[in-house]
Every structure is written in structure tokens, then in C-alpha cells.
Amino acid sequence: MRTKLLVVLLAITATAFFTHSCRKIATRFCNCSPDDIITHVSVYATGLNNPRGLKFGPDGNLYVAEGGTGGTQSSTTCAQVVPPVGPYLGSPTGSRILKVSASGMLTTVADNLPSSQTSANQGSLISGVGDIAFVGNTLYGVLSGAGCSHGVPSLDNGVIQVGKGGKWSLIADLSEFQQSHPVAHPNPGDFEPDGTWYSMIDVDGALYAVEPNHGELDRISVHGNISRVSDISAAEGHIVPTAMTFHNGDFYIGNLDLFPIVAGSASIYKVTPQGKVSVYATGFTTVVGLSFDQLGGMYVLENTTGNPFPTPGTGDVVRVDPSGVRNTIVSGLNLPTAMTFGPDDKLYISNWGFGPPAVGGGQILQVDISCSHTGKKLE
Q1: Are the beta carbons of 94 and 71 closer than 8 angstroms?
Q2: pTM of the model
Q3: What are the CA-CA distances from residue 67 to residues 166, 235, 378 (Å)?
Q4: Over the chain (379 residues), what is each successive 10-residue block's mean pLDDT?
């Protein structure tokens, strides 16, 4: 009898502790069922060229990495990206890093950054600055459209540091690192000698970047030292890892997978700081963004659904509740490429992240998330 009573008391105490903690973290979220989540999507900013990675800075403003406008230069002095993806055309000055004010006004933070594009047969798809991250008050960017194989022989892909007045410098040469530290299972059919870096985050004062073409997660110190955390290709083959976040002591990485697109073929992988890779969740499609909310809900940005190749109007955001329940909370997105939570607990999404209808056609969308039975916003 005493044992049973003790179990009941412990259960009540645990429930009370969880409820108190839940309310302390996010009062209005606690009583909201996943089925009661509603969203309102609005345009936060326009006039971007292939917007990619998003981060909020210490000043509270949103910063955006641009793929840019591509280029017209070619290079024959190095190994090229094989057809049909290559050969690339590039420009040393085609992309930017932008700041977006609360009113949606764009300000250039760093300019004249490299941009390049695939062959016309592959759609002239553009890469430039892949993502950005802050360590303290200092802004860093990871270049994905530079390097000789991308038609930009004057500058390799790597991590840049942005200083006062928008002056930037390359602090870590990722092109050289990849070429001198090959992964176990590169894919010869679309191999990119300079890589195509996609996501970058800061964790405990260091930068971590994921590269889809080779399939790796690397650590870059603010002093420019590079080391490999995980050769994802060795564990999983050529899965095209893209989106990355850090949650409860581990990295979580989503993958694009191969073309033609197979519905449900992408997954979310957990990668420990020691580099061990395991499958965390399956059944997603073309994952390009990944975030967690304060209570462990996972948000997965899918670029294209229901089509064999990238298709406007078919991107979405799927929320996975800690219980495992999945809900599509945003749909109808146009080739989205990145996603982040803001300090206001709203989601921000890069829309028309590649292949926009015209220069300046990229958008940032704001997603306000509410609970239908209370009419209050989730936190």
C-alpha cells in the first residue's frame, strides 16, 4: 500500500512540475492540442535574389543570405562540375547578405560576394551565400557559389567574417579542406569539387556547416580551423544533407534526397557531437529547413511535395509534436529554401529561394502560429 501511494504521489509531483515548467516556458502552448494549431502567413519582405539561410541577430533584426544573381564567367583551369549540372557560370560579385528591419526594409550588410549558376540544361540554378550565423555580435557567412569549378577562380568556397562597414574576409577555406579531406562515398554523377554548402549554425562559440554534395558536417572555429565532425556519406551514402539545427545536445539534419523526387524518401538524422549518425524520423520529402520550438515540437520545411522535380506551390511546413503527431501547418509555398524562428516565436521562411520569376522575386514570409480554441498565439 505504501509503495502504491508513493508511486501516486511521485506521479502527481511530476505532473505538477511539468505543468509549472511548461507554463513558465510557454504558458499558452501547454493547453493546445496539435489539432488546434492554426497559422496565418504574410509577406514580411520582398525584393530578394534567391534568399537562402536566415538568422536573427543580437540586434533583433533578421539577416538573410542571398544566392544572388549568378554570373557569366567560366573557368577551364580546374576540374569542372560534370554535365548536366555543370559547367557552371559565375561572378565574384553577384550575391549579398541583407538585414531586414521590422517594417520589411532591406539594408545591405555585405556586398560583392560570389554567385554562380548551374548549366542552362539544369535550369541555371543559383548559389551564392548559403547561410549565415552569429557568434556573439560577429556575423559569419558560408559561401556555396564560389570556387574555380563554379566559375569563380578568384575565391574559394569557405566561411567569411563580416566586419565594420560591411568589409568581409575569408577565414576558412572549405574548398581546400574538402579537396584534401575527401569523404568516403562521393557521388561521381554530380560531384562538385568546391562543394555546395547549405546550412551553418553556431554552437558554443564555434561554427558548424553541412555540405550536401559530399555529405559531411564540419566544425569551423572563429580562428579558421576546420575539422570534420561526421562523414555522413560513410554512414548513409549520398543522401544530400541540407537543413541543420542543434537541439538538446545533438545536431539534427534533414536531407533532400535524390531526383526524381520520391515522396517520403527524406529523413531527419540525429548526429552526436562525436559524429555518430542515427535516423531520428522518416517519411519526409525534400527537407530544406528544420527548427524546434521551446517545448520540443519539430518543424520541417519541405521544398516540393507531390511532384518528381522542384515545383512552385507545393512546399510546406510539417510540425511534429513530441508525441509524434504530424500536422501540415503551412502549404502552398514556392520553392522555399530556409526557415527560422524569430524572437517573437513566429516562423520566417525564405520563399522563391531559387528559380524566382524575376530578379528581386524572392520573399521572406512570416508565419504567425495560434491556438484555435483560445485564439491566442503559441509560444
Answers
A1: yes
A2: 0.91
A3: 18, 30, 32
A4: 35 34 46 79 97 97 97 93 94 97 95 96 94 98 98 97 97 98 94 97 98 98 98 97 98 97 98 98 98 93 97 97 94 98 96 85 94 59
Q: 1.20.1250.20, 3.40.50.200, 1.10.1060.10, 2.120.10.30: which CATH number matches 32-377?
A: 2.120.10.30
Contact 34, 321 (CB under 8 A): yes
Check residue 13 and give its pLDDT: 32
Would you say 162 and 83 are in contact if contact means Cβ atoms under 8 Å apart? no
The alpha carbon torsion through 129, 131, 136, 139 (nearest 10 deg) reads 10
CB proximity list for 150: less than 8 A, separation 6 or greater:
81, 88, 90, 114, 116, 127, 157, 192, 194
Measured CA angle at 67 (ends 64, 69), to 5 deg: 125
> What is the H or E stretch that residue 40 is in?
strand 37-48
